[in-house]
Design goal:
The protein is built from 23 helices and 22 strands. It is of the alpha/beta class.
Length: about 600
């Protein structure tokens, strides 16, 4: 008995000790977060503003307290850079005498083509407003085509002698799972909207290669993206489009930087010490002294004389809608229909807001959430000036929620359209019965009480009902676009059918109104409302670091996985969603998608 109490006491002491250590570590982390959030940023004279294109580019910089914590394996996180911060920093840097130039840190770029277009245009505006140089340098293994496109507005493009420029045209390679699913005994029962032959999101589960329609639409929008990019490069680098296409046909990958100097794609191949000498020349730093630098994330917090807007009672709400609609990933990303709808409704009912700019960056998602948001957007557009700004992608559900707007502004290389709908129900019957030996049986009070089960194929009656439901959904989509864009339903159907377009294509067929980024959309909204002075309010409000810290418990695993997987984290989420499908999920209307 004595030994028993000794072990119990030792266990209690151990638990208390671990708890104390955990609380102690929590306070250390919390203190680091607070210290980070309250850190005063100072900008030294003769500084360079660093824009790191190797970070994950997002529309809006998050208020993530874990990004700057270097605790390996626990709080490691993907570093992000916000387009909002880049734009604001460049606007201030043009008038800040302490900033002598811009240093573009180049590498493989995570943002989409519309994002890099906005950064490139912001750099052009910076150069037009001052005589400060832009210096672009890649000293990390590989520079991709998106990063190079941004870099071509720089006064100098420099690569480390061993860095590759991956200049080879655009390609789209897809994975198809049908054969694997057949071997596993899983059937994906798919219904697409009437004549939605271009709705390709479901093809990996139906086919073992691209359909001709999918191949056609991809070539059309990829050629549009490429031609726009090549035109921009030709203008800034002084190389003809024909010569650029010839270089792409050769594929410049695996050639050394010296070869890129010869063909005119870059200006010089230099080691880091030589780059530092260039920086000293730009900034005026003497000898071997270090060059003062400031990151976008820090610089955006610094006030600059003459660049502070006067206070105005009139406000323009900038409401961000980023991620998949109706699906919130464990990292907190995604668009919740009720939450976003409530945000739009609050602004609509607040007389101090004179206009709304809805920033959409979404591939689509669930019909129900899309319809919920569409309704609030329509009500808001009926009462206030409402302009939509498209980011990298505003397709399917992303377009669905945007079509009531007064105007739609997009980049020439935004991916949009995909006006279509599909539904899917998995059948795990063969996998369970034949492969695993698990059988199922059901009893019902009515003829269709067991309506749609994932343990058997759909009956003809079930298939007919689902087909009609999807057809009705597509008709609703066509009606919304027809009303919002002032087109006939037949005309919308002709450019719909699930087909994806580039922003340039979308302008030609009437799906968007103007080319531009978020700043252009805000200026357009102010002009339409007749506002000379105004202030913008970004919504939804970002949680402060303390709120993020308190939410940490549910997101620790997500932070760890994001830190390890980077951009590939989203594939983990998709696999997780697929593995969580069960009978209840399959019976709910959320298996009807606008993707």
């Amino acid at each position: 008995m004595k030994e028993f109490f000794k072990y119990v006491f030792a266990t209690i002491v151990g638990v208390l000790a671990l708890s104390f250590i955990g609380i102690f570590l929590m306070f250390i982390v919390f203190g680091a977060i607070v210290a980070s959030s309250e850190k005063q940023v100072t900008v030294a004279d003769q500084s360079m503003l660093v824009i790191d294109l190797g970070q994950s580019i997002v529309d809006r910089a998050p208020n993530d307290p874990f990004e700057d914590l270097d605790l390996p394996g626990i709080f490691s996180s993907v570093k992000t850079i916000g387009l909002d911060n880049i734009r604001e920093s460049l606007q201030k840097a043009a008038y800040d005498d302490r900033i002598k130039g811009i240093y573009l840190k180049l590498s493989a770029t995570s943002g989409g083509y519309a994002s890099v277009e906005e950064i490139r245009n912001a750099l052009i505006a910076f150069k037009d407003s001052c005589d400060k140089p832009v210096y672009a340098c890649a000293d990390q293994m590989l520079l991709d085509q998106k990063g190079y496109y941004v870099a071509t507005v720089a006064d100098q493009i420099v690569l480390h002698p061993e860095v590759m420029l991956d200049f080879r045209g655009l390609s789209s390679e897809l994975m198809f799972y049908k054969n694997a699913l057949d071997k596993l005994g899983v059937e994906m029962q798919i219904v697409r909207g009437p004549n939605n032959k271009f709705k390709s999101a479901v093809e990996p589960y139906m086919l073992d290669k691209m359909s001709e329609e999918n191949r056609e639409q991809r070539l059309v929008y990829m050629n549009s993206l490429w031609n726009h990019m090549i035109k921009g490069i030709a203008e800034t680098r002084g190389i003809s489009e024909e010569q650029l296409n010839a270089l792409a046909n050769e594929a410049q990958t695996y050639k050394k930087a010296a070869a890129m100097v010869e063909n005119g794609l870059i200006d010089a191949a230099k080691y880091r010490d030589e780059v530092l000498d260039d920086m000293r020349e730009i900034t005026g730093v003497k000898g071997t002294d270090g060059i003062p630098v400031v990151s976008v994330k820090d610089y955006v917090k610094v006030p600059v004389k003459g660049k502070t807007k006067k206070f105005s009672r009139d406000k323009i709400a900038v409401i961000y809608a980023s991620g998949e609609i109706g699906v919130t990933l464990s990292g907190g990303e995604g668009i919740n229909g009720d939450k976003l709808g409530k945000e739009i409704r609050k602004v609509r009912q607040d007389s101090s807001y004179k206009a709304i700019v809805l920033r959409v960056n979404s591939p689509g998602g669930a019909v129900f959430d899309s319809e919920t948001i569409w309704r609030e957007v329509k009500l808001a557009a009926d009462e206030k000036t409402l302009v939509v700004s498209f980011g990298d992608v505003a397709a399917s559900g992303g377009y669905y929620i945007s079509c009531p707007a007064d105007k739609i502004v997009a980049s020439p290389n935004t991916i949009t359209g995909s006006i279509g709908i599909f539904g899917q129900v998995p059948n795990f019957g063969e996998l369970m019965n034949d492969k695993l030996g698990i059988t199922s049986d059901a009893v019902s009070t009515h003829e269709h009480g067991n309506f749609v089960s994932v343990m058997r194929p759909m009956t003809p009656y079930e298939k007919q009902r689902m087909t009609q439901y999807v057809a009705n959904g597509y008709d609703t989509f066509l009606s919304h676009v027809s009303e919002g864009r002032g087109m006939t339903k037949e005309a919308v159907d002709n450019i719909g059918q699930g087909r994806v377009w580039s922003g340039e294509n979308a302008m030609d067929i009437g799906l968007i109104d103007e080319f531009g980024g978020l700043e252009d959309a805000i200026k357009l909204a102010a002009e339409m409302e007749g506002l000379d002075t105004y202030r913008t309010v970004n919504l939804p409000a970002l949680p402060n670091p303390l709120e993020e810290f308190l939410k940490m418990g549910g997101n620790v695993r997500a932070h760890i996985l994001k830190g390890e997987l980077g951009e590939k984290y989203r594939y983990y989420e998709y696999l997780k969603k697929a593995s969580e499908m069960n009978g209840v999920y399959a019976r709910m209307p959320y298996d009807i998608y606008l993707n």
